[in-house]
Amino acid sequence: MNRSEGIKAAEQEIEKLRKELEYHNHRYYVLDKPEITDGEYDQLMKQLKTLEADFPELDSELSPSKRVGGAVLDSFVKIPHEIPLLSLDNAFNAEDLREFDRRIQRELGRDVSYAVEYKIDGLTVALKYENGKLVTGATRGDGVIGEDVTSNVKTIRSIPLVLSGNQLVNLTVRGEVFIPKKGFEKLNETQILSGKEAFANPRNAAAGSLRQLDSKIAASRPLDIFVFEIVSQDRTLNLESHIEAYQALKALGFKLVTPKTCETIEAVIAYCEEMKEQRHELPFEIDGLVIKVNDFNQRRQLGVTVKSPRWAIAYKFPAELAETVVREIRVQVGRTGVLTPLAEFDPVKVAGSVISRATLHNKAFIEEKNIRVGDTVLIQKAGDVIPAVVNVVLEKRPEDTHPYEFPNKCPICDTAVIQIEGEAAIRCPNEECPAKIKRKLTHFVSRPAMNIDGVGESVVDMLIENDFIETIPDLYRLHGQRESLIGLDRMGEKSVDNMIAAIEASKSNDLYRLIHGLGIPLIGEKAAKSLATYFGSLESLLSAEYEQIVGLSDFGDKMAQSLISYLSRSENKDLLKELISLGVNPVSAQKVDVNGILSGKTVVVTGTLTQYGREEIKLLIEQLGGKASGSVSKKTDFVIVGENAGSKATKAQELGIPILTEAEFEEMIKV
Question: Which single residue of 42, 174, 210, 350 could bond 229 by disulfide (Cβ 3.0 to 4.6 Å)?
Answer without folding.
Answer: 174
